[in-house]
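Notebook, p. 212. Picked up where the previous page left off. The plan for this session was modest: take the two constructs that came back from the sequencing core last week, fold each one, and keep the raw output in the notebook itself so nobody has to go hunting through shared drives later. Recording the first one now, exactly as returned: residue sequence, then the C-alpha cell string.
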Amino acid sequence: IASGMLLCFGIIGFGMIVHIAPHAIALGFSSSNAASILAGIGITTIVGRVALGSAADRIGDRRAFIIGFVMMLAGLLWLVSANQIWMFYLFAIPFGIAYGGMGASESPLIAWLFGLRSHGLILGVAGIGFTGGGAIGPFLAGYLFDITNSYQVSFLVFAAIAIIGLILSIFLKPVRVKPA
C-alpha cells in the first residue's frame, strides 16, 4: 500500500513539475510567467516542508499524506478551468505545500509503518514507487497532451490518481512485527 501511495505521489508531483510551465505557455502566457508559476511551486514546497512537515510531527505522517492528497486534488480540479495567470499562482499554493509536506513526511511515515530496523532498506524499496511515479507522470501527461492537444485530461487523470493515493493513505496501517 505504501509503495502504491508513493507511486501516486510521484506521478502527480513530477508530472505537474514537468508540465505546468508548458501548459501555461500553451494557454498563451509568457515563458517568464510560466517560469514564475514553477518558482511559486518551489517556494511553497519549502513552506510545505516546514509547515506540513512540522504539523505531521503532531498529527501523524499518515494524516499529512491525507491532507497532502486532498490539497493536490483541490489544486488539480482548480487547474482544469484555470485560464488566468492569478489562477495558476493560486494553484501553486496548495500544490506546493502538499508536495513539500508529503516529501518531508515520507521517511517518518515509513518508520511509523515498519519501524526503524532496516529503515534505509525499506525506505529505498518503498521509494521505488515514488521514483517510478517520477518516470510515469511526465510521460503520461505528455502522452495525454499529444493525443488530446490539451492538458485538461492529464489534470483529471492526475486528480483520479490523487483520489487513489488518498484512499491508499487512509488504509495505511503499521506492520506489527512479532518479537524474536
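Okay, moving on. Second construct, recorded in the same format:
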Amino acid sequence: MVKLCGRFTLDTSIEVLESELGIVLTEFQPSYNIAPTQQVLSIVGTNEGRKAGYLQWGLVPGWAKDPKIGSKMINARSETVDEKPSFKRLLSRRRCLIVADSFYEWKREEKEKQPFRITVNDGQLFTFAGLWDRWRSGDQEIVSCTILTTKPNRLMESIHDRMPVILQDKDQDNWIDPTIDDKAFLKSFLSPLDDSLMKAYPVSKKVNNPRNNDQSLIEPI
C-alpha cells in the first residue's frame, strides 16, 4: 500500500545543496525514488547554526520496543502532533528539515492509482517539516525521522486528501531553532503551501517499485 508522501526525489549537486541551504556535506547521492526506511538528507538547528546529515525515514521513537515500528511512522498529522505520545515531545525539541526537489502522490482513478510528480517553484529545492528521534538498544542505534502532513491545498485535493508540510524559506530557521519550544507558534507553520507555487503532472507507474531509480521516473507521460 502506498502511503501519503511515501516517495520523493532529490536530484542536484553537493554544490547547489551547500549554497542554497547553508550547509556543509561530505557525501551526497541523488535519487529519483527516495522511499521509507532509506536514509534522507536532513537539517537540524544547533547553537552553531545548521547541521546536515542523514536520518532513516520512518520514525522509531526512543521508547519503542521494536524498531520495525518505523515503517509505519513515515508521516505524522500536524493537527494532532502536539497530542500524540510519539510526537509531542519531539515538536518541542527535535525538529528537522527534510530536503527534496519533488514528491510523488498517487491519485485513485477507477480501480488503479496514477502516480503524479509534484514540484515547487518549477523544480527548486524545498524542505518538508520533519521530526526526529534517537533509538538505542545495546550497541544498535537508529536516528530516524517523520514528515509532517496537513490538509491539501486546491492543487493537491484533486489528487489526495492530505499533503506534506512544505516550509516556506522564511520559516525554515524558526522551525529548527533549538531555542524555540512554543508549540502553538511552531504549529502555525504547519499549513498547506500556496498551490500557486506548485505543479503536478502524471508520471510512469515504474515509480511504484522503489528499486526503479532513474531519470525516466520524473518524465511526464
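Notes on construct two before I forget. The chain has a mean pLDDT of 95.
Flagging for discussion at group meeting.
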